[in-house]
């Protein structure tokens, strides 16, 4: 399972005299799904409006990766009900799948992670019948629920969901139970979607899924085979993988990485712990030696590649010695950034009932120490690019400054105004905290 940074995104639209707002909590897969849902409303005559307007219809795509995520999802539901207690409220996603008994008299439609591509139809059914709809299933079928987007409003990079589900059953994670078994989007449909996005002006595409590297495992293809086809797409400048497990970086993948510069020099590879004892308790499918050897092979192919990661601290039975091993291993690997998470108990997982739960004050201290190391490693990595020329995808402009990211996901401020969504060559002059500053090379 991919442990992802928690964030939310809110967009809105209006049709006739009814306004619709989409609220996406959690991962990039949710963001993609919510973007698709919004586009289906738009295609039926809805119009995008400002985020701060009240809505008549709310679509809330929930997250349940931790107990905190559950709480945030519930808080958002209550917030929109207070905002407009007469609104049609649609609640869907992982929080619902983890809590089939969830109900709220002010919620009009409740679904899990199935039927998300039918939200507009469900809303229209509710508008006609005025009867509450609750559709939940005991099992996911093996079919991938197709979605297709042509645009991502306000973004310079587009997401494409290629996979859903997880069967790793890490001991801390509820997602295999909320997302079901692994299933993949048909290869030709992936290629068609990316082609369309590129034709619509997107220079960078991000492949996303719950377990992206498991793409195609239940069909007659594989993730490397898909990548080989994607990199052939004309005018696609950058292909990014949102996250991938170390066990999915097989020789076929490394061969594609070696021979195709369209794939950016940045991989997000979750580690989760730098102690073999803790990795085993987490039910991760590798040890430190395996992880170390794979990273070595990657860096032989791309010496300047950015490797970012996720690490959970304060997992049950994690001693100070285990934590020190995580610090030392992180330094050895040389991550360019670490996303640090304190272990959060999740009802329904094996880790929740493990003995020797770590005190919250110890977790807080370890988060602080590992975050400090992450900041140090990030500065070391950024400093390597001072005096060098890089290519920046411009995302926004302000006060005669342009801001964007390189392929290896370095944030760069460029002096002067550059066209948004353009690729610009920049000479890096200096580092400012966790970003770089440079001038456009004419």
Plain-language structure description:
By secondary structure, this protein is an alpha/beta fold. The chain folds into 4 domains: 8-135, 3-Layer(aba) Sandwich (Rossmann fold); 142-264, Transcription Regulator spoIIAA (2-Layer Sandwich), CATH 3.30.750; 266-384, Transcription Regulator spoIIAA (2-Layer Sandwich); 389-440, OB fold (Dihydrolipoamide Acetyltransferase, E2P) (Beta Barrel). 32% of the residues lie in helices and 25% in strands. The chain is built from 12 helices and 19 strands. The protein has helices spanning 28-43, 67-83, 94-98, 119-129, 175-179, 187-199, 223-230, 251-259, 276-281, 288-301, 320-333, 360-383, and strands spanning 8-15, 18-25, 47-48, 57-62, 88-93, 109-111, 133-135, 157-164, 183-184, 204-209, 238-241, 266-268, 306-313, 337-342, 389-398, 401-405, 411-415, 423-432, 435-440. The strands form 4 sheets. Strands 3-1-2-4-5-6-7 form a 7-stranded mixed beta sheet, sandwiched between helices. Strand 13 (306-313), helix 11 (320-333) and strand 14 (337-342) form a beta-alpha-beta unit. The longest helix has 24 residues, at 360-383. It starts with 7 loop residues before the first strand and ends with a strand.
Write a brief structural summary:
This protein is of the alpha/beta class.
Q: Per DSSP, what share of the residues sits in E-state strands of 2 or more residues?
A: 15-25%
Q: Architecture of the largest domain, CATH level 2?
A: 3-Layer(aba) Sandwich
Report the major sheet: 7 strands, mixed
**Helix count from the secondary structure assignment:** 12
**What is the mean predicted local confidence, pLDDT?**
92
The Rg value, from CA coordinates, equals 22 Å
What is the count of β-strands? 19
**Apparent shape:** globular
Widest sheet: strand order?
3-1-2-4-5-6-7
CATH topology of the largest domain: Rossmann fold
Distance between the termini: 44 Å
Task: Estimate the helix proportion, in percent.
Answer: 25-40%
Structural class: alpha/beta
Low-pLDDT runs: 1-8
CATH class of the largest domain: Alpha Beta
How many domain modules? Answer: 4
CATH superfamily of the largest domain: Methylthiotransferase, N-terminal domain
